[in-house]
Fold this sequence. Notes:
Elements: E1 3-10, H1 16-26, E2 40-46, E3 56-64, H2 71-88, E4 94-101
Parallel strand pairs: 1-2, 3-4
Antiparallel strand pairs: 1-3
Helix pairs in contact: 1-2
Amino acid sequence: MPLITVYGLSKWSPHTMIKDLRDACLNVKELGLTDRKDVTIYPVASDSISTDSGPIIIIVELLFDRPERTHEIRQKLAEALGQAAKISSPNRSVEVAVKRFNTEKDAFWAG
C-alpha cells in the first residue's frame, strides 16, 4: 500500500485534491491497486503557508518494489499525481518523487 504524503498545502487547499490524487494513483492500472483502501494519502497542511507560495511536494513511499513496477510505471504514477495536483492548484508548481520499497533490503511490519 503506497503512502502518499503531500507537503505545502495550506488549510485553504482544495479538499478535492486528495480524492483526485487517490483516483490518479488507482488509474495507473499497472500498479495493481484496485481499492481506495489500497492508497493512503497524508496531507501536511500549515497555517503559515498561503495558497500562492512555494511548490506542492508529493512523496510516494512504501510502493513495494515488484518487477512490473518499472521505472516507466513509477514515472507514469509521478506524472499522474502531478497532473491531478495541478487540477486543484493550477497556479502552484508541483514536484513528485516516487520511492521504491524493497522488502529484501528494507524492514516492514503490519499488524
